[in-house]
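Reproducibility note. Readers wishing to regenerate the assembly model reported in the main text can use the exact inputs given here. Chain order matters: entities are listed in the order in which they were concatenated for prediction.
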Amino acid sequence: MIITNFLSGIGRYVLLLRSAIAKPEKFSMYYKETIRQMDSIGVGSAFIVVMISLFIGAVTAVQFADQLGDSFVPNYYIGYIVRDIAIIEMAPTITCLVLAGKVGSNMAAEIGGMRQKEHIDAMEIMGVNTAAYLVMPKIIAAVVMIPMLVAIAAFISVIGGYAAVVFPGIISHAEYELGVRSFFQERYVFIMFVKAAVFAFLLTSVSCYQGYFVKGGSIELGEASTRSVVLSMVLILLFDYLIAVLLT
Amino acid sequence: MIRTDTLHKSFGDNHVLKGIDTEFYEGQCNLIIGRSGAGKTVLLKLLVGLFEPTEGQVYYDDVSFFDLSAKEKRAIRMKVGMLFQGNALFDSMTVEENVRFPLDMFTKMTAKEKQMRVDWCLERVSLEGSNPKYPSEVSGGMQKRVGIARAIVQKPRYLFCDEPNSGLDPRTAIVIDELIKDITREDEIITVINTHDMNSVMGIGDNIALLKGGHLVWRGQKEEVLRSEEEVLQEFIFASPFLKRLREDALKVRDGA
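Running the prediction on these inputs yields the following structure tokens for the assembly.
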């Protein structure tokens, strides 16, 4: 039973995505919806992303400084470690885990609410390809905006690390700057963007799927929203590992 | 004409519709009546293609709907307008945006042409001036009228109404019924209404189909409803003691008692 449900779920997910890849009935309507989603995902999530990355950078720097203690590792390594951890792991993964909660649950609830209030049926009867109109703009908006948010998160994390260790005098400005400039590998930035784009696709498509096929009432809608967050998070962590294995 | 051919629909072990054969005519208010749970909404959703039949077929002017490709189905659906029981108005859009949505999505009309069409439709349902309001800011009856305006904005050939009077007071219900009847007559469209409101049946019904337990148990014109001695029809229509007494009185008068 569990295996049958799992396989049927995957089948419906693939079919939904296949239906979503279709020629828009009216390009301008899809464009408008994509811009609206970009605003909601990008601008709407900027504050929380900045706050989280600021503290992640600060905590990483303080804890690494503590671990270095009186060892022979030079102080400027703090800047180097904060930068690389932010770029490779913290910015894409933590940002997307947070967005799975904020953006993903919102998408599942929005589409699920439309299903329950018969908005999706109304659009279908008008002749709208609802899989395309409701899902594709969200995926495109997320795949464009989330990598930008992740890049901002990485930058802010480095600033947060700087504020946490330079202002209290743990290390000097010159040491932190030297660390941030040392051993830089461009491919880490590439990995960051690959992760961001893959995680963005996962969290939006899974959330849209959960909302699109919701049944029942408000309890089921809440469950679908929670399921979208949990599933997105698990998939993000799984793909984080797979990308790490494949690209490093 | 819309025609159903031996239409069956099951949900798992639950056999909801059992071989429905009926026809819905142009320029007429075709009513599907029956008690709650008789299968009216399932039949309506099958007619518009929201459900796939387990067996049987729906014909739109002799075109078998469920044999069409998704693209061909969409072409037919663009000729369909539907009024939902819960209105299904997009609550984040204003009244005007709701009515304009199908035009924005499917037509190449200019902004001015769209505005004229939307204003005409809102005027048609006596809602002129309600353009900037949100659905939550208007009454239930007005929401129904917005739903009708949205349903007719693309000049549909087929209009489906799922319990258009549910939740409305009797006076507003009559206004909505009259509006649907007028639109049907003026535009010569095929209107299919799913209802259990006897006022609607006697007020605007032309061609009536009675469902019971998933079966089509009676079909005929409105004039035949009162004359029919069919027990199952009388049982449904005169379920209310008040109407039952009225009928008995009328029969007594007719028989000269």
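We highlight two features of this model. Helices of chain A lie at 2-20, 27-68, 77-116, 119-126, 130-166, 173-181, 186-212, 218-247. The interface with chain B takes residues 25-26, 29, 117-119, 121-122, 124-129 of chain A (CB under 8 Å).
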